[in-house]
Amino acid sequence: MSMQDGTTLAQADQQLTVPDSYAVVYKEPIEEEFPARFMRRVESLCAQYPVSPDGKVFSGITDHFSAIFHGFAGSFHPAVVDELRNEERVEVMGNERVELLWGPYIDQPTGSWALADISRSNTGAFNPRAPSSNYVYHRSSLGGEGVTIHVIDSGYDSTSTTIEKDRVEERTPGASANIDAGLKKSFDEDVAAQPQTSKSHGTLVATFAAGTTMGAAPKAKVVVWNAVKDATHPEKDANSVRIANAFEKIVMQFGQNDRAHLNVINCSFGRMHAPVGNLGRSLLRKAVEGALAKNFLVVAAAGNSNIEIKWPTSKLESENADAGAYYPACIPGVLTVGAYDLDRKKAFFSNYGEPVGIWAPGVNFVSSDGQWKFGTSFAAPLVSGIAACILAEKAKADPNYRMKPKEVQDVLLSWCYKDSQGRSLLHNRALLD
């Protein structure tokens, strides 16, 4: 069987997934003793098939999930995968490759306008095209204090000075005992094998969410979850198992004692769900839905392909459903952010469509090296930062109240205005009133 462009299903699998890497999810309701029995069976199979005929070593089970769903993930021999698929009480999902949403960038004079443009109160009319370092960002005095913004991305550059070091940390969402215990990853112990340049995307996203002078929530805590393993090609090596691990750790470590309302999860990444061959249902969607069910606010970038994205039309119970859904932006319950430009029009690269719930500045973000960055990746953390400010204000005013994600979204939308296309722009209206 082949696809229309001549690509075989096997080739498509290679492009869309990490070879031989799968997640296994127990179907509800789960029989009490089944997981333990099944794990022993899988471990026995992995011991029988540790290596392929061409010498590839399979790691077996590497990750366990219990907070966002019940199951495990790992690297398995095809014979083991066949046995997994024969078990009707589990669902096998491919490990999808996920793209960090870089936008195009050009060299321009330094100066920032985005924070002034999304200020809660009017800053007065200004020309966003004029280079300036004197824009005014009117914000909550709390600045997100007491709230944690989770940036699932490419890591954080420990040499960066854009966020005070006591407000930011990097964690690796793997099976490390230190991480599982919830211990802070020391900046001094940063992975030496991974060049800091590979972490620039995550560093920028964190900066625009909570940077001291460039962030929307300059007093919030930030945890950057490094979902990238390959330092040489960070934009190509994020995948859904690592991202699911990050969601798992966030829910387990930060959702204790009913504290989900003090967290925002930022997703400046995405992929078009195109189930072919053995890819199956979206693990990325499963992970995000698990966090949403625990009342975590999830903010996602709409994507930079200038395409219309749409809600999924099914629950994706079959491997051939909804080949055009873009995740996590199209997952119901996620607050999806599109990008607008200096003219408050849709940025030329931004995806659009019904799932895009709010629009924020997405062009001319200045980086520490003086370059200007573009992308929905950088519009999303602005919204995450403003959401953190809203949560902080509510928590201070009423410490016993647990603000729900939908309530935060409603407040944000009440601050927006709708343009002629019906888009909700997070803009202070200084040029309109």
UniProtKB/TrEMBL annotation:
<keyword id="KW-0645">Protease</keyword>
<keyword id="KW-0720">Serine protease</keyword>
<protein>
    <submittedName>
        <fullName>Serine protease</fullName>
    </submittedName>
</protein>
<keyword id="KW-0378">Hydrolase</keyword>
<feature type="active site" description="Charge relay system">
    <location>
        <position position="201"/>
    </location>
</feature>
<dbReference type="InterPro" id="IPR000209">
    <property type="entry name" value="Peptidase_S8/S53_dom"/>
</dbReference>
<dbReference type="InterPro" id="IPR050131">
    <property type="entry name" value="Peptidase_S8_subtilisin-like"/>
</dbReference>
<dbReference type="Pfam" id="PF00082">
    <property type="entry name" value="Peptidase_S8"/>
</dbReference>
<dbReference type="InterPro" id="IPR023828">
    <property type="entry name" value="Peptidase_S8_Ser-AS"/>
</dbReference>
<comment type="similarity">
    <text>Belongs to the peptidase S8 family.</text>
</comment>
<feature type="domain" description="Peptidase S8/S53">
    <location>
        <begin position="144"/>
        <end position="414"/>
    </location>
</feature>
<dbReference type="InterPro" id="IPR015500">
    <property type="entry name" value="Peptidase_S8_subtilisin-rel"/>
</dbReference>
<dbReference type="InterPro" id="IPR036852">
    <property type="entry name" value="Peptidase_S8/S53_dom_sf"/>
</dbReference>
<dbReference type="GO" id="GO:0004252">
    <property type="term" value="F:serine-type endopeptidase activity"/>
</dbReference>
<dbReference type="GO" id="GO:0006508">
    <property type="term" value="P:proteolysis"/>
</dbReference>
<feature type="active site" description="Charge relay system">
    <location>
        <position position="153"/>
    </location>
</feature>
<feature type="active site" description="Charge relay system">
    <location>
        <position position="377"/>
    </location>
</feature>
